[in-house]
What does this fold into?
Amino acid sequence: ETGVTQTPRHLVMGMTNKKSLKCEQHLGHNAMYWYKQSAKKPLELMFVYSLEERVENNSVPSRFSPECPNSSHLFLHLHTLQPEDSALYLCASSQDQPSRYSPLHFGNGTRLTVT
Amino acid sequence: GEDVEQSLFLSVREGDSSVINCTYTDSSSTYLYWYKQEPGAGLQLLTYIFSNMDMKQDQRLTVLLNKKDKHLSLRIADTQTGDSAIYFCAVSGANNLFFGTGTRLTVIP
It folds into this structure.
């Protein structure tokens, strides 16, 4: 079982669809993250959860809605997306928040295409 | 937030050394990391350095930190074709890591 598992690996959706991305970590970590990876741009932090509480929300449009029901699971609910939202969405977890030595462990990502 | 900058591309010949550079803006960052991303995969932690160190060596990898200039580098000795990937520099903030754009390393056989 890999440390951080993301499903689905690939997703194609129309602009009017509603879908969800799922992330599960098997590492016993306390913090979970969603990042967006677009070509030639730095990784963009979207949301951070620590002990199931959202601690950071980087001005992400409301068409992205996170949910963290417990410390092992993280969801990203998507609705009425735009073509520019097409990207690789990466989930990560860490033991603690990164101000201490607490590296992030990443899943393999969901490649999202909005048509 | 923190700005982390890297050049986008680097090409080296197999067997040569690769040096990937990174600059950052927040001098209070305590941990600095290097990650590797292979095609179709997430980011894999390669190594890290604590801010009170100036060098760390781990097999073929050497990390150098110049805290005064806020400059971090990753040297890969005897670069192999399997080292072709995107390399990300990341620096710690209070609640998250700040990442650069990644440097795509291409190793020419």
User: Anything to note?
Assistant: Chain A touches chain B through 27 residues (CB under 8 Å). Chain A is about 0% helix and 55% strand. The longest strand of chain A covers residues 18-25.
